[in-house]
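Inputs:
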Amino acid sequence: MRSNIVAGNWKMNNDLAASNALVHEIMNQVAELTLENTRVIVAPTFVNLSSVVEVAKESAVEVAAQNMHQAASGAFTGEISGEMLKGIGIESVILGHSERRAYFGEDDALLAEKVNGALKNNLEVIFCFGEELEDRKSDNHFNVVESQLKNGVFHLEAAAWKNIVLAYEPVWAIGTGETASPEQAQEMHAFIRNLIVDTYGAEVANEVSILYGGSVKPANATEIFSNPDVDGGLIGGAALNADDFVSLVKSF
Ligand code: PGA
């Protein structure tokens, strides 16, 4: 179901103690709020997932993984499967983050396999995509986004979309302090929703949450989130501070 979502991607930050402390602080602050159709998600590193799940259980804060391997099990040293995530109480997984694409060679074909692996385990997928600066400068951003979506998630059947959240993250705005303007975000999000309408129809498209990511912070969140096709954010830097993160939740 389409809802507002504020998801914090902690990336490779926070050891065990810091992860537990941060989720605890977020939980305490979120408990004071009335969340109307708004989900709050944190994504710690793999090693701290179990512990954060334990701390956050019975709270409104959900816990997601930052990645997973596409296979169910096997000789894949250092990897973690969807089944394993499910087994420790994880319900969502971020896939296709631009850092995975850029530094770990994850391409569209691999990501489609990962999406399939996640859905097979009844994990919700937060699927990330977005153009590089050169793509936008050369006015190629719509083509890039369309092709990432077509290759990564448009092979799915309509029914699978209830477990898909999209996160449009222009690479030039991630961790740079530079943000897409509210108009740029809305323009791209409307384009994305129209692509879904074209392939799956309006009913599916209207039920998909489409998040924006890239230097979202308390100072710009309200403006970005108030766009009709922006259903929240995937947050990096500002997710590492409980006050900042929860203030993003409050901006709905
Ligand atoms: P940022 O990261 O908020 O630090 O730009 C966003 C992301 O990587 O999802």
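The beta strands are 4-9, 38-43, 61-65, 92-95, 124-129, 164-168, 210-213, 232-235. Flag for discussion at group meeting.
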